[in-house]
Amino acid sequence: xxxxxxxxxxxxxxxxxxxxxxxxxxxxxxxxxxxxxxxxxxxxxxxxxxxxxxxxxxxxxxxxxxxxxxxxxxxxxxxxxxxxxxxxxxxxxxxxxxxxxxxxxxxxxxxxxxxxxxxxxxxxxxxxxxxxxxxxxxxxxxxxxxxxxxxxxxxxxxxxxxxxxxxxxxxxxxxxxxxxxxxxxxxxxxxxxxxxxxxxxxxxxxxxxxxxxxxxxxxxxxxxxxxxxxxxxxxxxxxxxxxxxxxxxxxxxxxxxxxxxxxxxxxxxxxxxxxxxxxxxxxxxxxxxxxxxxxxxxxxxxxxxxxxxxxxxxxxxxxxxxxxxxxxxxxxxxxxxxxxxxxxxxxxxxxxxxxxxxxxxxxxxxxxxxxxxxxxxxxxxxxxxxxxxxxxxxxxxx
Amino acid sequence: xxxxxxxxxxxxxxxxxxxxxxxxxxxxxxxxxxxxxxxxxxxxxxxxxxxxxxxxxxxxxxxxxxxxxxxxxxxxxxxxxxxxxxxxxxxxxxxxxxxxxxxxxxxxxxxxxxxxxxxxxxxxxxxxxxxxxxxxxxxxxxxxxxxxxxxxxxxxxxxxxxxxxxxxxxxxxxxxxxxxxxxxxxxxxxxxxxxxxxxxxxxxxxxxxxxxxxxxxxxxxxxxxxxxxxxxxxxxxxxxxxxxxxxxxxxxxxxxxxxxxxxxxxxxxxxxxxxxxxxxxxxxxxxxxxxxxxxxxxxxxxxxxxxxxxxxxxxxxxxxxxxxxxxxxxxxxxxxxxxxxxxxxxxxxxxxxxxxxxxxxxxx
Lengths: 398, 364
What we know:
The complex is a heterodimer. In chain A, α7 runs parallel beside α9. Helices cover 50% and strands 15% of the residues of chain A. Chain A has 3 domains: 93 residues, Acyl-CoA dehydrogenase/oxidase, N-terminal domain (Butyryl-Coa Dehydrogenase, subunit A, domain 1); 111 residues, Butyryl-CoA Dehydrogenase, subunit A, domain 2; 155 residues, Butyryl-CoA Dehydrogenase, subunit A, domain 3, CATH 1.20.140.10. By secondary structure, chain A is of the alpha+beta class. Chain B folds into 3 domains: 109 residues, Orthogonal Bundle (Butyryl-Coa Dehydrogenase, subunit A, domain 1), CATH 1.10.540.10; 96 residues, Butyryl-CoA Dehydrogenase, subunit A, domain 2; 126 residues, Butyryl-CoA Dehydrogenase, subunit A, domain 3 (Up-down Bundle). Chain B contains 10 helices and 9 strands. In chain B, strands 2-3-7-6 form a 4-stranded antiparallel beta sheet, with no helix packed on it. The longest helix of chain B has 33 residues. The mean pLDDT of chain B is 97. Chains A and B meet through α1, β1, β2, α8 and α9 of A and α6, α7 and α8 of B.
C-alpha cells in the first residue's frame, strides 16, 4: 500500500537525533568552525560512546504483513538527516562512524569486524592523480611473504587524522585495471603510513581531511578486505569491481541525507527570520500571485521535498532487497545539488543577515558544497543514471 | 502505536488496473492523440474506453447506479498518471467528470447526489465538469470574480468561467462563485437559462474540447448550492490530479527520447554517448522521480485523511515548473525533428504548459 509517511518507529529515531543535533551540535557549531584544526572535540566523545552502545546495522527492522521492511538503511537516513541539521562537520567527526566502518561491516571477515568494527575507520580512495576515476588509482600493494607492502599517496581522506585505522584502496597490478583494485585495513599507528597534512577548507572545517603517505607500509596478509584473488575472466573482473562499487548503493542515500539536513536547517532559519520581518509564506495564494520571497521559499521547499522522498525511496529499496543503484545515484544527484542551491539561495534571501556570521546560513552554504562532490560528484551520478537509462556501458558513455 | 510503514508497493488491484490502462495507452490512446490534436476534438471511442474503467462509478452510492466504494484519491491519481502518459487531452476530457462526481460526493448532501449523479452513472463518457478557473492572467481561486446573489429561494450567478473541458457536452457544471462573503459552489445544468458555452482555442489540450462559460444572471435554486463545499480541498485534489497527468506525460517524453538518442547519430556515433545529451536524459528521469513521489505523497495523505494542502501545493509547483523543463528538453533532444509535427514532442510541450493555467480540473 502506497504510503510516504514516516512510521512512528523511524520518527522516534529522527527525534532522538534531532535532540542530539540541537542540544550538542548546534551550540558548538560556530566554535569548531572557527577552531578548524583540532583533535576530536570533547563534546563528541559521549556521543560516540552512546552510539557504540547501540546495536549497529543489525537493528531489528520492522516489517508488516506484506513483508515490506523499513530497516537499517531508512533508519540511517533519519539519523543522518537530523544530525546534519545540527552540523554536518560534527556528525562526520563522531569517532566510529567512518566510511571505512561501512566497508568493513559490508565485506569484512568476522575477525576483521571483531578487531576493527568498533574502532574509527576512515576510507582513503582519492589520490592526487585520481579522483572520480577511482579505477585509475596508482597506490600499489605487493605481497611479500606474510605481509602486504603498500606504497602511494592518498588525499582528501575524511577522518584521516583522528581515525584508528584507514581502509586504503590500492592496486595489485595496474595493468589489470579495476579488477586488481583491493582495499586494505591499515592501523593509523602503522609507522609506514604518515600524515602529510590536514587540509584547510571552505566549509566542513571541523571534519579533518587528511593527506596520507604510504612508504613501504607493511600490514599482515589477513588485512585485505574481501578476496585477494584477481578474477581471471573479463566478466568476473567487472563483477569484482562492481561489488566494491555496490557499497556506494547503500552509502549514497546516506550522503544524500546529509544534504537534506543541511537544507532543512537553512530553510527553517530563513523562515524564522522572515517571520520576524513580516514575510509569511503560508501557501495561501497561488505561486505566481505570491511575492518573490514567498515563491522562492516554496520552490526551495518543493525541491527539498523531492530530494527527501527520492532519498527515502532509495533507502527503502535497499531495505527491501531491491537493486537500487540507479535510485541511489538519482537521490544523491538531486539532493546534492538541492542542498547547495537551497543553502545558497537562503543566504541571498536573507540579504545582509544571511551573509553575516550572526546566523548559521553562510556556514550552511559553505558546508553544503562538498556534499555535491564527495561520494561521487553530481556529474558522476548523472553518468551512472544515464548509463542505466540508456543501457550504455562505461566504455560507451564516458 | 503502530503506524503504517513507508511503502511504494501498489496493491494487487492497483497493479491490475495499471496494466490494463497502460494497454489502452499503448494500443489506442497514444497512437490516436496526434490526429485528435490536429482535428481539435476528442475521439469519442477513446473517451468511452477511459470511462469504461468506471472511475466515476466507484464512489457513487449503489442506489444511484454506482459501486459504492470509499473515495480513493490515490487510485484516481494513479489512473491520471497512466492516462496522461497516453494523452493529456483525452485524459482530462474523460476524467473531468470523475472530478465532478467526486465534488458531489465530497461536497454535496444526499439529496444533491440523488439529483445530479444518476445521469452520470454510465460506463460510457457522460461529461460534467468543475468550473473554477476564470479568464485572465492573475486568477486566484479564493477571489473569483464570478458572483452568486441570493434572491428569495434562488441564487443568481453572474460571471465567466474558463478552461472547462468538454463544456459543450456537459450535463452540468459545478460553478464556483463568491457568495455572501464566502466561496460557494453551485450545480448548474448545461441548459440553464442565461448560461452560454463557447469554444476556446488554447496552445495545447486541443482535443479536450475546451470552452468558456458565460453566466448572465443564471438562476440556481438554493438547494443546488453544495452544502459542504471546501474550496481548498477542491483546489488541492485538483492539483494532485494535474500533477499526475504531467508525471505521465513527462514519462512519455522520456520513454520516447531514450531510443531516439541511442539511434540518432552525429559525428559518427549515437548522440546518447555525449554527456551533454546523456545528462539531459538523466536529469529528466531524476526530476520525474521527484515529481512522481511528491504527487504520490499528497495523494496518499489525502487517501488516509491526513492534511495535504502543503504537499499538494508543493507537488503542483514542482510539477508545473519541472514538467515544462522536461517538455522543452524533450524537443531539444530531437532538434529540428522535435519541432515538426510528425513527432509528438511539440504536442507534449504544448500540453504540459497547461499545468500553469488549469485550476480545479480533475479533482481526484
